[in-house]
Design a protein that fits this description.
The complex is a heterotetramer, with 2 copies of chain A and 2 copies of chain B. By secondary structure, chain A is an alpha/beta fold. In chain A, strands 1, 2, 3, 4, 8, 9, 10 and 11 form an 8-stranded mixed beta sheet that branches. In chain A, strands 5-7-6 form a 3-stranded antiparallel beta sheet. In chain A, strands 12-13 form a two-stranded antiparallel sheet. Chain A starts with 7 loop residues before the first helix and ends in a 6-residue tail after the last strand. By secondary structure, chain B is of the alpha/beta class. Chain B has a single domain, classed as Glutaconate Coenzyme A-transferase. Helices cover 16% and strands 25% of the residues of chain B. Chain B is built from 4 helices and 12 strands, in the order H-E-E-E-E-H-E-E-E-H-E-E-E-E-H-E. Chain B starts with 6 loop residues before the first helix and ends in an 8-residue tail after the last strand. The chains are: A alpha/beta, B alpha/beta. Chains A and B meet through helix 4, helix 5 and helix 6 of A and helix 2 and helix 3 of B. Strand 5 of chain A pairs antiparallel with strand 5 of chain D.
């Protein structure tokens, strides 16, 4: 049974339901699963909680989905990159959970690793630690952070083999390998699909046991911005 | 070439001079991104929290949109670069593996604590990696203009803006002066070219001890 | 070829038959390591907790001392193998990314909980990955002889040996029978070739419900 | 200033003192830093706490150092591999802290990642959780485990470049990349030292910021067991 799915729209209609939590990779548009996000904008779904460093940029990436009113909660570290988020937040149209970027990434890793929660020094004594549990470990104060998990993860990788092993490209790696571990159903959007044996076992970043479905990228980030590409699936 | 440096460039140059020996350095957005152009220490390795160690400037023609720093500006690989995911990157930061973080700040209080992530009254919707760097980097250098664009004082008795961390920074470099922080107290250790002690005092609300060269007392 | 299987081989073969569909499977040491020779499902991918996914048998000539399973026995790569560190490997296990763990056991109690890491009176100095597999794998299959070498009963009302986890296993395959565990109760669902129900009852201390084929009651 | 050190004996004499905690990579002898361990047996040091999955095998690897009486405490998951450990434990000559292997590896990762401690389901309700804090997170019981850190780490990698970036070999990777993050001073023993630029930035497993010193392997695990090798340092 191949993990490679051609009909992305149908895949999302099958996997997504109102009220789900979706993990979305990327640091701004870099390493964002642009094809999956674009298809999300074509799907009738609402009340989504999105875990992602940002909610895209104004009208771009997750910013487009945001403007459709499909996102009721954002969990991230830097929503500032999209002014529409602030506007909706002001109007009470979206709930936001702001986490330091290290805490966001660590909590997702914990979610994928069967860790219930952990203690970090980050944010101790600041407004972002308000209401959170503090514990002294070896004489230092730490704040408790619970793990984050998703129903579905949208991730972007560079190459996948037939089994679903993934490698990434440069700083487009960012949150993607973490999110690939932390959702019940993981969809990887990739630029290249290769035969088994073409990826070096030593350089595989995401082993295939984390990946449920693979789709071919149809939108790529270039110097000129996001552009559509047409490529045949192997 | 004897080009007159802008205020920001002056600050960046002074920070660069501080980076001696083998160091892993993380640069925040704003003035800190100007530091590399004044660096000639081959043992400074730049770390960016979006997942890369070993960063160089990039030529316009070689820009790759998927190689960027934390400010999403294009950068280039060096010969010993490596890539890693966001959790690994912040593990490096929190775990004490980054030697120096050079950060901008909105305000600094007289104990050396900074506010650099949120402004009251505005939506507090972005923090990024600021808090992680503050708790994790071995040494924190603040690189900022001494006053705001509206000539408001930034080095205050207390920060009005929310603190980024309870940990004081180690050094503050502005276009007026250099301060060192020891035991939660500020020491003025250098005046920037053409700036008088009087001017620093007038434009600084926080108490500080003057300890210019030749006046070492500790 | 119609070779008579040993008790251990019989158990391993029955476990192999249970592995249907696309599965990530972790095999413990002892009888579980015999399972692969009876597997003809290409969608079973073997995981070993010392840091490898995708394992094959190795020919004597191709042995590499640095490619081993958790029992330190030499193994081979497959076409889609990958390597990872110990923390990542156990993140896979604890995080629920391994579908089936096949484990040996010293004792099983009548709620399906097992003891497989320590014997009272002996030094308790080794646990390895047993406890992680018990809490993390989606399905746990015990593969063990029904009796000890000294013919002592292993499926007891209560374990005398320390439990490996509070989580009951899902299935127990012995050389006498197959039990399924549902809601912390044991169901005898198969007798191994040539074994009578009476023999199973005589050699099992735990209560169990007989539910052999054609007797489905739930 | 090069990280490559030729005089291993001198390096260990400089870095080691009585009573330190040393992290030692390897799963049994596989991926163990055999050269560093051998040199440890030549150094006058005592009262060491060793964090390692095993304490070697009988008389081999850390087993040799154990028999010299230099180790007062072992923190690991499977001491059973060396019968001498049990014997010394029985006589009260060594203290042991037994952890599930996943907890051992996760605690070391936490130590390197600035995490004070974390909650795992592993060992809940068993003898190994006795006396440990339990916390209910999202309705499930977890046990608290503190981070583990070392004064010095001995790790084994396959290749290092001049900067100190490391790649590993097959299942000899195991605990090594974790331990490389969790000690104040990290010594990597490697089989090959290459020029900068020879390692692919995408396949580097341990970035150089974790590594303080690199030494050339003089003992290698082969099919025939541990054998000495003579190789020139680049």
């Amino acid at each position: 049974m191949s993990k490679i799915i051609k009909d992305v729209n149908q895949l999302l209609r099958e996997q997504l339901t109102d009220g789900q939590t979706i993990l979305v990779g990327g640091f701004g548009l870099i390493g964002a699963p642009l094809t999956l996000i674009e298809e999300l904008s074509n799907i009738d779904v609402s009340d989504l909680s999105i875990v992602s460093n940002n909610l895209g940029e104004k009208g771009k990436g997750l910013g487009k989905v945001l403007n459709q009113g499909k996102i009721s909660k954002g969990i991230g570290s830097y929503f500032t990159s999209n002014p529409d988020v602030g506007e909706r937040y002001q109007k009470g149209e979206i709930e936001l959970q702001l986490l330091p970027q290290g805490t966001l990434s660590e909590s997702i890793r914990a979610g994928g690793a069967g860790i219930g929660g952990y203690f970090t020094k980050t944010s101790v004594g600041t407004d972002l630690a308000k209401g959170k549990d503090i514990r002294v470990i070896y004489g230092e104060e730490y704040v408790f952070e619970p793990a984050i998990k998703g129903d579905v993860a949208f991730i972007k990788a560079y190459k996948a083999d037939q089994a679903g092993n993934l490698v990434y490209y440069k700083t487009a790696r960012n949150f993607n390998p973490l999110m690939a571990t932390a959702a019940k159903y993981v969809i990887a959007e990739v630029e290249h699909i290769v035969e088994d044996g073409e990826l070096d076992p030593e350089e595989i970043v995401t082993p295939h046991l984390f990946v449920d479905a693979i789709v071919q990228s149809r939108y790529i980030l270039t110097k000129e911005g996001v552009v559509p590409v047409e490529r045949e699936i192997v | 070439m004897n080009v007159k440096l802008s205020r920001n460039e002056l600050i960046a140059k002074r920070v660069a001079e501080e980076l001696e020996g083998r160091l892993i350095v993380n640069l925040g957005i704003g003035i800190p991104t100007l530091v590399p152009q004044y660096l000639d220490n081959p043992e400074v390795f730049l770390h960016t929290e979006n997942g890369m160690l070993g960063i160089d400037d990039v030529e316009e023609d070689n820009i790759d949109p998927n190689i960027v720093n934390a400010g999403k500006l294009p950068i280039a690989e060096t010969k010993n670069s490596s890539y890693f995911n966001s959790a690994e990157s912040f593990a490096m930061i929190r775990g004490g593996h980054v030697d120096v973080a050079v950060l901008g700040a909105l305000q600094v209080d007289e104990t050396g604590k900074i506010a650099n992530w949120a402004i009251p009254g505005k939506n507090i919707i972005g923090v990024g990696g600021a808090m992680d760097l503050l708790v994790g980097a071995k040494k924190i250098v603040v690189a900022m203009t001494h006053l705001t664009k509206k000539n408001q004082i930034k080095i205050k008795k207390q920060c009005e803006f929310p603190l980024t961390s309870t940990r004081p920074v180690d050094m503050i470099v502005t276009d007026y002066a250099v301060f060192r922080v020891k035991n939660e107290e500020l020491y003025l250790t250098e005046l920037m070219p053409g700036v008088t002690l009087e001017e620093v005092k007038e434009n600084t609300e926080a108490n500080f001890t003057v300890q210019l060269k030749g006046e070492e007392v500790y």
